[in-house]
Amino acid sequence: MAAAPWYNVVCRKPRGCFAPSCVSLKSIAIGERTPMKIAAMVARLLLGLIFLVFGLNAFLHFIPMGPMPSGPAAQFVGALAQSHYMPIVAVIQIVTSLLLLVNRYVPLALVLLGPVIVNIFFFHLLMEPSGLPLGILVVVLWCVVAIYHRQAFSGIFVQRA
Length: 161
Hints:
By secondary structure, this protein is mainly alpha-helical. Helices cover 60% and strands 0% of the residues. It starts with 24 loop residues before the first helix and ends in a 13-residue tail after the last helix.
C-alpha cells in the first residue's frame, strides 16, 4: 500500500467529519472553507459584534434603556449598579469582543466571556424573560465557537492530573 501524502491526516471517524483534527492539512494550506469553519467564523464575528455593541453601550448609552425591571430583577440590577460592577463587566465585554473580532486569543476570550454569558442567560431565564431570546442566541454562538476551538480546552477535562 502506498504511503499517504504528507498533507493527509488519519481520521477514524466517519466520512464528513469536520473536526479540526480531521480536516486535512492540504485543505488548511489552500484555505478551503469547511462548513464548521464557516459556521465558527460567523458565530465568532456575531458574538464579537454583540458584545462590542452592548459593552460600548454601557459607557456611551446609544441604545435607549427600557423601563427598569421590577422585583428581584430590579434588586439585582441595583446591586450591580451600586457596586460599580457593571463597568468592569463592560470592559471585559469590549476586550473579549475585540479579541474575537480580530481572531486572536479566541480561547481566552471564550473563557472570559463564559461567566458573563452564564449570568446573562440565567438573569433572563429566571428574572427578566423579555431578553431570553438574545441570551439563548449568545449561548448558541458561544457553543459553536467553543466546539470549533475544543482542542484548546482539552486539558480542562482531564479526570486525573
